[in-house]
Amino acid sequence: MTDPERHPVAHSASSDQLLAFIQFLRGKKIPVSPADTLDAIEAAELLGYSDRNLLKNGLAATLAKSSHELATFENAFDDYFQLASNTPAGASASEEPFAQPEASQNLSPLEGNIPPQNNADPLEGLRGNALFDALESQDESALSVAIETAAADVKVDEISLFTQRGQYVRKILDALGDEALRAAAIEFEQSEPAAFEAVQALREQLRERVRDRVERAYLIHASAQTEDLLDDSLAKLKLGNIDHSQMARLKRLMERMARKLAARHGRRRRRYRRGKLHVGETIRKAVATDGIPFQPKWRKIERKRPQIMAICDVSGSVAAYAKFLLMFIYALQDVLPRTRTFAFSAALGEVSDLFDTLPVEEAIEKVNLKYGGATDYGRALNDFSELALAEVNQATTLIVLGDARNNQADPRLDLLSEMKARAKKVIWLNPESARLWGTGDSEMLRVKRHCDVVKECNSLNQLARIIDQLLSDRR
């Protein structure tokens, strides 16, 4: 049995095909710069296209820069070059598709093809038609070359929507000359049932091959674009409206956004001031060198370590939004300052230890079970004041997630005002539309006066923008 990893990539592969593959990689979220592209072309020219495994490893060395990108690259390479590896060895996609015999070029598809009624074999009149002969004899090489040529003629690589598959199948079949077989089948349907069945079986085999070719083109050329559209739509949807079937995609999207933010903000190098010269210590150190200060000493500046305190309403109306905020924050722990987490509906408690010891999804489930219920912002802010307000200082950013609907109770905005006075910044995120703020039992219009930043936040895009700004301002 032939090892599929050693099957040669089609010799027709070229720098144009490689450029198309690189575009495919970009659609798979692998960043490829112009310099990377030039390196990949040079590597492919040195390695050649005859050894699939060698080419794969060579391109991976130039285009994949992390273990995550390497795994994505390997899957993308296998998907993209699967078509080429299925092309018979030595076949050229530049050959002409099946052509009708010269004698029948100016005739209708049936003229000169359908035998007289007294012919013992009704299919004899179709023999000599190149497409029929290749299908009947199962000539894999001829069929593959013809399908590839027809696919190129109808520009199947331009497919962009899943619903276009049928259109391209029909175009390729027409380019192959299926019209003659279709006309023959219509002629046989009433007069020669057995011949009709035989022709239809061959046509169905052809249609299946063409459908596979179109679907492979869709996977290579349109799937990345479709994935982008799906991700873009999902990132704009209200998080509370996303059902369970979309959770896996949403989690992948959130992780990708977190990686982007980590890459953007994690590369920044902080500049530290050395402070004022410590004259006395410098002079003492200079005694050993005859008063020459080879080792100046500086007064150290104590810097308070920045931290985030996230206070999340996990009552029924906003629990889903709190879940995603916490997932996003904890996905960025490598670049975010220290994070302490508090949850409440009525009573409030710190839940940081759960996130330190459990996977974030499991921790969130436990938080919701323990603190879910009816909302009382007044009690929650009072509990926070007793529990952690003394530790809030000018290095602390407070993030409050909630809809500020307090069931007509006292929201204790005096405590929120004290939190603002102590903290570096108070950010309030409300998943409700801003048009609803202040309606019914919403205290949001009053809450705004005691916060530094108030934002509507109910989609992944909005959440990412807010976290991005937080990371930009953290210094």
Produce a short descriptive summary.
The chain is α/β, with parallel strands linked by helices and 475 residues long. The chain contains 18 helices and six strands. Helices cover 52% and strands 7% of the residues.
Can you describe what's shown?
The protein has a 6-stranded mixed sheet with strand order 3-2-1-4-5-6, with helices on both faces. Helices cover about 50% and strands about 5% of the residues. The chain has about 475 residues and is an alpha/beta fold. The chain has 4 domains: about 5-85, no CATH class; about 100-235, no CATH class; about 275-300, no CATH class; about 305-475, 3-Layer(aba) Sandwich (Rossmann fold), CATH 3.40.50. It has 18 helices and 6 strands. Helix 16 (about 415-420) links the parallel strand 4 and strand 5 (about 425-430).
